[in-house]
Design goal:
Radius of gyration: 17 Å
Bound molecules: S-adenosylmethionine
Number of domains: 1
CATH architecture: 3-Layer(aba) Sandwich
CATH superfamily: Vaccinia Virus protein VP39
């Protein structure tokens, strides 16, 4: 029984990883960018990273592998996602912790905060501004926030262009343009991709002195700031 549950979870990890790369083809390119930036803030002997909306633990596992002394807390409200993350990250023992809590809650002290395609679930900008204030408060001076997500201009020309490029990037993964547009319309019910300038402005308002875009490709973006 335990074995079959375990196999099932492994299958879910594999399925999730495959699906996310088809829907967000920029996903794998964002990871090394995030890891390089986390290296700026993580001391050799450890460090504590919060992974907000960590889902199945893909980012947490990559962080745990790259920084063998770091501790990572995955915050996610979905117990099933956390269960899958637990399976994926089992090899890292108690260096990875699983916290069933909303990333809108106050955060514990840490060296770095990371998120990957999770904070776009926040549709209300005032709530997102509160999250950024909480991140600022949790980070030690010199700590870093690195968010890999989606940012789209509000003006129609650049907005349409970004979605067009995103749709085009899905084609080699078997998702044609009408299917891509259907996905975008459906995700719009749950997701919100504020323009990058809005994101950076909210980080500045939260107290970060030099918010920065570290990488971008069409709608996909890695941005954040050093406290
Ligand atoms: C698309 S998944 C991304 C998972 C993972 N970061 C990755 O890169 O594969 C978004 C995750 O955010 C989580 N989430 C959504 N709203 C949340 C909230 N308010 N607090 C914590 N997690 C949340 C969802 O449960 C889901 O696991």
């Amino acid at each position: 029984m335990a074995h079959s549950v375990s196999s099932h979870l492994k299958l879910r990890v594999a399925e999730y990883d495959e699906l996310i790369r088809r829907l967000v083809p920029a996903y794998p390119a964002m990871r090394p960018v995030q890891l390089e930036l986390l290296a700026l803030a993580l001391p050799e002997g450890g460090g504590r990273v919060l992974d907000l909306g960590g889902g199945t633990g893909a980012l947490a596992a990559a962080i745990a592998e790259r920084f063998p002394a770091a501790e990572i807390e995955i915050w996610d409200t979905d117990p099933e996602m956390l269960g899958t993350a637990r399976e994926r990250c089992a090899a890292f023992g108690d260096r990875v912790r699983y916290v069933q809590r909303s990333f809108t809650d106050p955060l514990p002290p840490c060296d770095a905060v990371a998120a990957c395609i999770a904070l776009h679930h926040v549709k209300d900008l005032s709530v997102k501004a509160g999250i950024y204030r909480n991140i600022f408060a949790a980070l030690r001076p010199g700590g870093i926030f690195v968010n890999a997500d989606t940012a789209v201009c509000a003006g129609p020309v650049l907005r349409d262009h970004a979605f067009e490029l995103w749709a085009r990037s899905m084609a080699p993964h078997g998702i044609d343009r009408p299917q891509a547009l259907t996905h975008f319309a459906s995700w719009a019910h749950e997701d919100f991709y504020p323009p990058l300038i809005t994101e950076l402005g909210m980080l500045a308002s939260a107290g970060f002195v030099e918010p920065e875009c570290f990488w971008r490709e069409a709608a996909a973006v890695v941005f954040g700031a050093v406290r």
